[in-house]
Design a protein that fits this description.
Blueprint lengths: L2 E9 L4 H11 L4 E8 L3 E8 L2 H10 L3 E13 L4 H10 L5 E11 L2 E8 L2 H10 L3 E3 L1 H5 L2
Antiparallel strand pairs: 1-3, 1-4, 2-3, 4-6, 4-7, 5-6
Length: 143
């Protein structure tokens, strides 16, 4: 149920993000979801890709600083209040939501959202208990 997220440390300079995208494209790796947080000097690019292990290897070989983190991907009904149900389930537990971002595509009428939490196992348990669909990694990578 875990999805492997890749985090890439990027200097905040022109063309650096394009270099990541080009490097992945040349290796035939498809980006499924992404988020970037930046400061004046650097940024953290977070990616879900279809081949995370290969992506790490290729990026590192091209001089990028890369790490991986376990996250979960959740099917959220694409309707008003759909996200609220998921967030309320987490709020009613001891799981801390660190950050989240959405996928570039929908699946079966649902929006797909990535959640980084402090306790992945407990978050999965809470979501399943509340009838929220947590997607297996294979399904996420194939979106």
């Amino acid at each position: 149920m875990y999805v492997k997220q890749i985090s890439v440390f990027l200097e905040n300079k022109s063309g650096r993000l394009a270099e990541v995208s080009t490097t992945l494209a040349q290796a035939k790796i498809n980006i499924r979801a992404l988020s970037i947080a930046d400061t004046t000097d650097f940024g953290i690019l977070r990616l879900i890709v279809n081949q995370p292990d290969l992506a790490c290897t290729v990026l590192q070989a091209n001089g990028f600083t890369v790490s991986t983190t376990d996250v979960i991907a959740v099917a959220v009904p694409d309707q008003p209040g759909g996200l609220s149900k998921v967030l309320e389930a987490l709020a009613g537990s001891t799981v801390n939501l660190e950050y989240m971002y959405a996928f570039l595509a929908k699946q079966q009428g649902n929006a797909l959202v990535v959640f980084r939490v402090d306790d992945v196992e407990q978050a999965i348990e809470v979501m399943r208990r509340d009838g929220i669909e947590v997607l297996p990694s294979e399904q996420v990578y194939a979106v």
